[in-house]
Specification:
- This protein is of the alpha/beta class.
- It has a single domain (5-335), classed as Alpha-Beta Horseshoe (pyruvate-formate lyase- activating enzyme), CATH 3.80.30.
- The chain contains 13 helices and 9 strands.
- It has helices at residues 5-20, 52-55, 61-71, 89-98, 112-115, 135-141, 147-160, 177-189, 208-226, 239-245, 281-287, 308-321, 323-335, and strands spanning 29-32, 75-78, 102-107, 125-130, 164-171, 194-199, 260-262, 265-269, 274-278.
- It has a 9-stranded mixed beta sheet with strand order 6-5-4-3-2-1-7-8-9.
- Bound molecules: iron/sulfur cluster (2 copies).
- One iron/sulfur cluster is lined by residues 253, 255, 269-270, 272-273, 293-294, 301-302, 305, 307, 309-310.
Length: 394
């Protein structure tokens, strides 16, 4: 695990304080979305299909600070749209860093190099650069050639300027384990602090049997990519979460651990689903029917989800929930996961249906689903997005 000691201490202190108060539902990471606008139009994006007036809007710095203060999470993540398009992003970043929060500013890096002089390096600030895989896979995922090279150049520039840099990668069902293992080596060679990985999320509904196999397939893919991982790979994720991805540790979703605040308010119940909004953080915690979400609930939207926003908090809970969890985490951190033979890659019983998003674009193949060849779609004009729309040919 690769996070600054100060951040680790802040998280441990926060968890212990909440548990001492008898609070078992507490936030760890605020997902702050100050805008949905972006300068890319990735085929698998779930954020840029809002109407034009929403894409033109953004939260004010004061709204952002109020959300940060209300929530109280020790870590703040600013995901996409593209935060560097926000006209007051410097002010937002400075205000959050002043509050001694650990801030991860997620960016596709198209504007990162030119924006670096607007920020000051700090242990409380990290740029989390979106890299969905090796050059070919990444450029295909973001639907524009050359983006990988721009992102790599920006990472190097940010490191030279003394900034903390991490990467975030969403893996899809057509990920080739060997290519991704090489990709992790390349990313670490750039001098990043750590990598964050997550399976793509699918809204597709499927029968129970298919859920089971789909989940197995996801676990098998991650096991192949992460098994016998060299010590030079650093992940800024809990070792328990990585074991969960490999199918070696069972967890249940804890969506309240990563509450989302955006232009509409506090999003219920999680970053992925959009099932209403609360006007305050306290309202979100009280009004949300938490038992209706997570795999155990039987909610089909949650059946195959293994995404970090629901399961990283569960991994933290597993770590601090018992002495066994704490010892297991310490063992994984110090010695890594035990080496095992690579598991076979099961195929789902039925091919997954082709998914078309609300914006008319084909969704990327998602881990757990069999990739299908996608027909060529006619171009669809996307207002406010500079990149052309694309489908992904699996
Ligand atoms: S970079 Fe791609 S995935 Fe991220 S917000 Fe922009 S369009 Fe969406
Ligand atoms: S399992 Fe958790 S994170 Fe995933 S969609 Fe359901 S509530 Fe959201």
């Amino acid at each position: 695990m690769s996070v600054p000691v100060g951040q680790m201490i802040a998280v441990v202190r926060h968890v212990l304080r909440e548990r001492w108060r008898g609070n078992h539902r507490y936030p760890l990471v605020l997902m702050l979305e100050p805008l949905f606008r972006c300068n890319l139009a990735c085929g698998g994006c779930g954020k840029i299909q809002h109407p034009t007036e929403i894409l033109r809007s953004h939260l004010t710095p004061e709204q952002c600070f109020q959300a940060v203060d209300e929530c109280g999470a020790p870590i703040v993540s600013i995901p996409g749209g593209e935060p560097l398009l926000h006209p007051q992003i410097e002010q937002i970043v400075a205000g959050i860093v002043d509050r001694k929060k650990y801030l991860y500013l997620c960016t596709n890096a198209l504007k990162l190099e030119e924006m670096l002089p607007h920020f000051t390096p700090s242990p409380h600030l990290a740029f989390s650069v979106h890299l969905d895989g090796p050059k070919e896979e990444h450029d295909q995922a973001v639907c524009r050639d050359g983006v990988y090279d721009v992102a790599v150049a920006a990472i190097r520039a940010a490191r030279r300027a003394g900034f903390r840099v991490t990467t975030n990668s969403t893996l899809f069902s057509d990920a080739d384990p060997i290519r991704y293992r090489r990709f992790f080596d390349e990313v670490m060679a750039l001098g990043v602090e750590g990598m964050m990985i997550s399976p793509g999320y699918s809204y597709a509904k499927a029968p129970d049997q298919e859920h089971f196999l789909a989940r197995l397939r996801s676990q098998s893919l991650f096991a192949r990519i992460l098994e016998n991982a060299p010590r030079r790979w650093k992940f800024n994720q809990s070792p328990v979460f990585l074991e969960f991805l490999k199918g070696r540790w069972d967890l249940e979703c804890r969506p309240w651990g990563t509450p989302t605040y955006n232009l509409f308010g506090w999003q219920k119940p999680c970053y992925l689903l959009d099932e209403g909004y609360a006007t305050s953080f306290a309202g979100l915690m009280e009004e949300t029917n938490w038992s209706g979400y997570g795999r155990a609930s039987g909610n089909p939207k949650c059946g195959d989800c293994m995404v970090h926003c629901g399961y990283e908090p569960a991994a933290v809970e597993a770590t601090f929930g018992s002495l066994a969890g704490l010892l297991a985490t310490a063992r994984l951190t110090l010695f890594g996961a035990p080496n095992r033979p690579l598991p076979p890659l099961p195929e789902p019983a039925h091919p997954a249906p082709l998914r078309v998003q609300a914006n008319g674009l084909h969704a990327l193949p998602v881990l757990g689903q069999t990739p299908l060849p996608l027909p060529i779609l006619p171009p669809i004009p996307l207002e406010n997005n500079a990149a052309s729309a694309c489908g992904r040919v699996a």
